[in-house]
């Protein structure tokens, strides 16, 4: 008989306990190099509720994980650290962020309930009123205001 821990939600992650076990989709992954410091990998993970968290993979663990971490793939992850998200610029509004450690384990597994995309829109009125998180990086979706058809006569 196998007794396994239940999966936790991203919204519940905090620095009060260890270990955590989550099911997630990697929705974005990129490499950061800020000389003279060594580079590292960053990711955004999302669970089936659409909640997101930022993850850092230090250079020491980068080589171990780079072949196994694939954007838009779903995984079970456990044994990672959770810290307050004190980064100057954040990619997620979650109060915490994750960091892979030497004991982190991941297993790719199909979780069709985890959406590929989850959009969070901000009303223009809120932006104009200054009602937004100034240290949060966001995507901008452009709006077409009007289209004009122009015809030219050839002489």
UniProtKB/TrEMBL annotation:
Protein's recorded name: Putative nucleic acid-binding protein
InterPro entries hit by this protein: NA-bd_OB-fold, RFA1B/D_OB_1st
Short name of one Pfam family: DUF223
Domain Replication protein A 70 kDa DNA-binding subunit B/D first OB fold, first and last residues per copy: 7-107
CDD domains noted in UniProt: RPA1_DBD_A_like
Superkingdom assignment: Eukaryota
